[in-house]
Specification:
alpha+beta, SH3 type barrels, six-stranded mixed beta sheet, 4 helices, 14 strands, 32% helix
């Protein structure tokens, strides 16, 4: 799993969904294998700043020792890794993980928050859904957008609500879901993602209704385009056919007229001859 600096291309926008549960490795160069790596664990959850809409890093679930002794999760800074062959490889520097990362980011990890799973509530108290995915800037950790889930049925029918960065205020205590066991009057035990009231008008995408609407729009547009195309192509053809038919009819009438005229002449001649015969002529 060797990596070279020019092979590392970090995307500007990262989604928590894309990295969730991915394997995490650390570089362990050896004398006979300088590119050797060792598995650390998998991503458990993403961590966000307690006051700002900013991702500060993620927690890695490490395997228990001898399948018996639990190991503490490892904290990694949002910029303390690079991608390699679809997996995450930790950077080999003090500011990438644990206490070194917390010091570099100027944060207290115990005060930070896990956004995914929190209810998103507007300033007027409207619950819009639950945070399901967060997009953030790979260089700064700044949140770029949030995708909300409204439950499996609602997601299927109505789609998911996508909130832009300007609608996101940040973590708010005293409202939302219970974060930990506490007395009923402990407001700090509750938390939610506070969003602006304008978030109620945010785009909802991916539902059956949207797909049906899109299909109808496509079908209508296609029908209109087909009609116009047929009309464009058919109109001169119809006109040409009508002209030809008219000419044919005219020729037919003219020919019939000639036949009728001949018949009339025959009948007239026959009548004249009959009269002559009756008169002894």
């Amino acid at each position: 799993m060797g990596v070279r600096p020019f092979d590392i291309i970090m995307p500007m926008e990262i989604h928590t969904k894309d990295l969730a549960t991915k394997k995490v490795w650390t570089e362990r160069p050896r004398k006979n294998d300088p590119d050797a790596t060792k598995k650390v664990g998998r991503i458990r959850s993403f961590v966000f700043h307690p006051k700002e809409p900013r991702c500060v890093g993620f927690l890695i679930k490490r395997p228990d020792i001898a399948l018996m002794f639990h190991r503490k999760d490892l904290f990694v800074a949002f910029n303390g890794y690079h991608m390699q062959d679809g997996d995450i490889v930790l950077n080999d520097d003090a500011g990438s993980k644990d206490k070194g990362a917390c010091k570099a980011l100027s944060i207290n990890l115990d005060e930070c928050v896990i956004w995914v799973g929190l209810p998103a509530i507007t300033q007027d108290g409207t619950v819009l859904g639950v945070v399901d995915d967060v997009a953030f800037d790979s260089e700064t950790g700044r949140v770029l957008g949030v995708e909300l889930s409204q439950g499996a049925t609602a997601n299927t029918l109505l789609g998911r609500r996508v909130l832009p960065a300007q609608d996101i205020c940040g973590f708010k205590r005293g409202m939302g879901t219970q974060l930990y066991m506490a007395d009923d009057d402990d407001e700090r035990a509750k938390g939610a993602l506070l969003v602006g009231d304008t978030a109620k008008a945010a785009e909802v995408a991916g539902g059956v209704a949207e797909k049906a609407g899109a299909a109808t729009a496509v079908a209508t547009d296609k029908a209109k385009r087909t009609y116009k195309k047929v009309r464009t192509v058919a109109k001169p053809k119809v006109q040409e056919a009508s002209k030809a038919a008219g000419q044919a009819v005219e020729k037919g009438v003219y020919a019939t007229g000639k036949q009728i005229g001949r018949t009339k002449g025959m009948f007239k001649n026959f009548a004249d001859e009959f009269k002559k015969g009756m008169n002894g002529e």
